[in-house]
Amino acid sequence: MRTLYHSAFCPFSRKIAFGLKEKKLEFEHHWEVIGKPSSRLLSLNPWGELPVLVDQNLVCINHYVSNEYLEDAYPSPVLMGESNAYRVEVRRLISWFDKIVYQDVFWKLFYEKILKCQLHRIAPDTKVLKTGYALLQEHMEHLEQLTETHHFLAGKYFSWADIAGAAHLSCIDYIGDIHWKQFPSAKEWYCKIKSRPAFRQFLNQTLSGVAPSPCYNQLDF
């Protein structure tokens, strides 16, 4: 028995759900609402963080623990890299998305425009949005530089770096805030990721009251 406690538009949840599918590991979905953890989730993780992965009797309380556990317990296919240098680069990129991009972009755009209204009935702060758009532009420029010279984000091979990047960017793509035409190499990379069978689970997910951007579920856009 393997269960993932997660939410559709939580980038960390998407990261682990994507990784599970890439490793061809079946799991049961236990859907949670962001900001409103169930009593079951709180019994597993008192902080209410998402996601929580339960594999047999092992409880992985967040995305970082789950990520490392999956790579240790199910090493095939290798998603962290074969060499020390490759693994260092994968972890650097994961950290960039999970810490910097998350704070700069998800919280300043997706949370401000969508979750803040849904959870607290508060209108978005235009100053925060302006900052979020500027930071998104900076991060997308860095992503463009990476994808101009790399087949995948860390180099030649698909890895957790691509999984983390796509998990975060897909949430922002849903609300149409990424101008992909400005970033052709990044767009080509994202098309490759969207075409992976393990990623397609996200393309049919919708957010109540919020329509997806026109290209969100298109594999070639």
UniProtKB/TrEMBL annotation:
Residues 1-78 form the GST N-terminal domain. It comes from the Bacteria. Residues 83-213 form the GST C-terminal domain. This is Stringent starvation protein A. It holds the Pfam family GST_N_3. PROSITE patterns: GST_CTER, GST_NTER. InterPro entries: Glutathione-S-Trfase_C-like (IPR010987), Glutathione-S-Trfase_C_sf (IPR036282), Glutathione_S-Trfase (IPR040079), Glutathione_S-Trfase_N (IPR004045), GST_C (IPR004046), Thioredoxin-like_sf (IPR036249).
